[in-house]
Amino acid sequence: MRHIISVLLENEAGALSRVAGLFSARAYNIESLTVAPTEDASLSRMTVVTSGSDDVVEQITKQLNKLIEVVKVVDLSEAAHIERELMLIKVRASGKDREEIKRMSDIFRGRIIDVTDSTYTIELTGTCAKLDAFIEAVGKGLILETVRTGSSGIARGERVLRA
Amino acid sequence: MHATKFKLVKVLQVLEKLDQFVTTAYPLRLFSIQLLGSEIMELPGSEISGAEIVVRCLQEEGVECLFGYPGGAVLWIYDELFKQDKVKHILVRHEQGAAHAADGYSRASKKVGVCLVTSGPGVTNAVTGIATAYMDSIPMVIISGQVPTYAIGEDAFQECDAVGITRPCVKHNFLVKDVKDIAITMKKAFHIATTGRPGPVLVDIPKDVTAAKCRFEYPKTVSLRSYSPVTKGHPDQVRKAAQLLLQAKRIMVYSGGGVVLGNAAPQLTKLVRTFGLPCTSTLMGLGAYPGTDRQFLGMLGMHGTYQANMAMQHCDVLLAIGARFDDRVIGNPSHFSSVARKIIHIDIDPSSISKRVKVDVPIVGEVGDVLDDLMALLLESGNEGLDAEALKEWWCQIDKWRSSDCLQYDRTSEMIKPQFVLEKLYEITNGDAIVTSDVGQHQMWAAQFYKFDKPRRWINSGGLGTMGFGLPSAMGAQLSNPGATVVCVTGESSIQMCIQELSTCKQYRLPIKIVNLNNRYMGMVRQWQQFFHGNRYSESYMNALPDFVKLAEGYGHSGIRVDKPADVEAALRDAFSRKDELVFMDFQTDQTENVFPMVPGGKGITEMILAEEL
User: Fold this and answer.
1) pLDDT tens per residue, range A62-99
2) Contact at 8 Å (CB) between A49 and A31?
3) Is B524 a residue of the active site?
4) Across the interface, which of A13, A17, A58 has its CB nearest the CB of B167?
5) Rounded CA separation B94/B31 (Å)
6) Of the partner residues B171, B225, B355, the one whose CB lies closest to the CB of residue A163
7) To pair with B457 at 20 to 30 A between CA atoms, which of A94, B12, B320, B382?
8) Is the ipTM of this complex over 0.90?
9) Nearest-CA distance from B160 to chain A in Å?
């Protein structure tokens, strides 16, 4: 099962490699991993999307907690949460496809942020599944380049993750 | 003002020259400071080098023994070591030896093991020792030199990414880039190494940082927002555990290395004795409960006793204390979990709980504290305590298993049986020695036949299984217990992996007794090849062995070769009568002897091969 895990950790050199190293050393999956400093520059917030049985995910959260630089760990998928990912996608847009791509981008609430005679570059945010759906809808034949940030997540309502 | 500074520098230089004759530069420097009076706070003496800070930190931590090997990147630190005499430096012959010695030093005492190695090959050589300590949760601090900060990443001479290389085998590690951070980093390193589930911590210090200067103040305490290990067990969980035990009919106590590391042997012994419970121990936990006691069923696991393994599988409540359900201990986890029994698991490390086996009542906390709380609750229950009738029946069953006498061997053999040597060793040392071992058959026989009544007497590499561990860890054990009898039980293959440390033993006059069970084979490899690879002894025969007696003599020690069972006792008595000498005893043992019982890899713990079945 897919899980989205939020990690609050010290913003120190090497902290990211400890997390990445843990996943490879213990043979856990990483679907995506994003990390950046928070409003408190001494802390980073990381979102890891992983998959595994309940036992494996329990071990992942325990092992993450065991890392000295990790302050807090929460499995967001245990409760209501919001998840967003940003994608920049460059597509071939010429002839009859040009109008169709524009329409498609509008339907998915994307924004065209760069234009040439034959290409569009589109910015799109949403859940991982929505971005997948856009790629599917455009079709691989027209896609020139895709950049995705990986998912970021936050709990709904009053629940917060703080040091 | 400048003139005064200059004068003081001159005075200090003269005083440091005196170091050649007097090794106490620090008091001398204090003397010079007194001479020059109140101006001192602004003078060079108030700022000290990073190297001196490192040494002062070790002194503040009460480190008495430092195992190391010098090299380019740590020369400033060695220079400071030279000028003081509080921290005694032990010069090993290979950095692996430094790490194992620091490890053995810690295991045989309750202190932190500390070692100092240079950059590049210095630290890579130490990695095996660091990983060994990590797998067995031994508190250690490793200081490694690094190339200067400006050279990091440029493939400098003797550069390696020490923090990167050691990351998966340390509890934590640091690269110190500023001299101002040395003191706080050292404080954190000792704090992290010794608290919670202990482990090795590496501090990597670039050479220019050890040369740079700043004022020194050692922090009294340290707190890390991201690190605060639990100590007390949750009261509700302890209550649930007590209820389970009170309803049980067949309790089994399974004790591990955590009881030794948590210094909880008295609590364990009290609990087991008070309620008359059967108790087994892992390889790492031996000695936490007295090995000679009737309630002790012997070690469990792959080479555990028949009664211990059977009782593990047939109990109805299993009380696991500071143990981690290792693959060598419980065998196949699905076979282990195939019976209905409730499991209570006490451990300091939450990630050890429900890792390989699902447990019913997890309790995270210091094992000693949790056992105290559990004991109090069980005693409160008064007359409604444990079911005495059921316990009696349970012991009847256990005694039937015990009567199989699973550790029997051929006592009439004309060849020296390794088990016989260990029985004699136990007898002659009155069971009172600190015994280290290497890895293989001899390790298992030592664990089976030397009965440890006290914790921290049995020192071996259980988790990583490091051949070469025995001799250097014996050096550490001897240095932390100067008056004690220290024995290294080894084999002809293992001992050769760190044999160079015989030289260190000579230099520091360490009177270790080496019991070499020489069967001319990597015995455990040969045993597996016999059982599972059709007797194809691929590369497990140790050809071209040295003459160990001459080898020991070459290093300045004495050696005894023993070929016949009748000479075993005399040789041991002779060796142990030489209190101040290292004696290397080379016993030529039966090449075909195997370790029994044995649970083949992937099998359940009750699926043992016993000696008579072959």
Assistant:
1) 999 999 999 999 999 999 999 999 999 999 999 999 99
2) yes
3) yes
4) A17
5) 39
6) B225
7) B320
8) yes
9) 15
